[in-house]
Amino acid sequence: MTDAARDVARAAENSPVMRGLARGGYAANGIVHALLGAITIAISVGGTGSPDQAGAFSALETVPLGIAGVWALGGLLGALAIWHALQAVLVRGRDLRAWGRRASPVAQSLVYVALAAIAVTVAMGARLDGDESARDASRGLLATPGGVFVLGAAGLTVAITGIAFASIGVRRSYDKVIEIPDGVAGATLNTVAVVGYIGKGISIATVGVLLLVAAFRQEARAAGGLDAAVHALLDLALGPVIVFAVGLGFVSYALYSFLRVRYAKL
Predict the structure, then answer these.
(1) Using an 8 Å Cβ cutoff, are 120 and 43 in contact?
(2) Partners of 178 in beta bridges
(3) How far is CA 230 from CA 51, 131, 154, 204, in A?
(4) Cβ count near 14 (within 10 Å)
(5) φ and ψ at 178, to 5 degrees?
């Protein structure tokens, strides 16, 4: 990155408005995960719903001023994507180690860009199906030469991401991005962070396993997104208990995101 680009990124990062929008983005992410958790818990006890991001935004649309809320979430998530992109620009160096340090903020930026895009798409009236999108993408890959290996690699990457996410909770390494206050607030933050990271990690890893199964069987219908992952867990022994725990993990991650509004290291 050029010095001029870093100067622009640093000026934006130091802006009180940009920092406020980034904190708002964490709150928006908390709302999304709270909705995901509520839908997932409802499914674990026999209810219905779509426990993925599109389903969460669609559920929000049903309340008064819900469409305006979805637009607001999309804007705040987009701002958070920009914040993480700025962190990548500010990393100095061009060697492999420097690019490794850029990988995390770039990946996080892309995740929030995707979330913002889903929110805007839903707000505009589209009805998204994450499972069908995953199956369509898998079908396209399986129809191309060597596509089965690409799909398998994607599944392995997603599964490893889920495991890594859960390990952040187990090792409590989230303290790199958030200040841990003293007393009850700190104990609460640690509890919701550990449960949240592990629960979300399980759901992400399950999506990766579904993609791996689709690649191994060469059957696109075996693939799926978060919705399919939750229902796959539901079919296991003690499935409702596992799904309830995953839903609780989403809710805990939501609480962690809300606390991050106050304690994030920006």
Answers:
(1) no
(2) 264
(3) 7, 11, 19, 10
(4) 10
(5) -145, 140
Residue 174: how many other CB atoms lie within 10 Å: 18
146 class by beta-carbon count within 10 Å (0-12 exposed, 13-18 middle, 19+ buried): exposed
What are the start-end ranges of the H helices in 14-65? Answer: 16-44, 53-61
pLDDT along the chain (266 residues), means of 10: 69 83 94 92 87 86 87 94 87 75 86 92 80 78 83 89 92 91 91 92 88 82 80 85 91 94 89
Single-letter amino acid code for the residue at 62: T
Q: Which long-range contacts (CB under 8 A, 24 or more apart) does 176-179 make?
A: 176/265, 177/260, 177/264, 177/265, 178/259, 178/260, 178/263, 178/264, 178/265, 179/263, 179/264, 179/265
Q: Which residues contact 198 (CB under 8 A, 6 or more apart)?
A: 166, 169, 170, 249
Among residues 76, 48, 56, 64, the alpha carbon closest in space to that of 122 is found at 56
- Confirm if 151 and 142 have CB atoms less than 8 A apart: yes
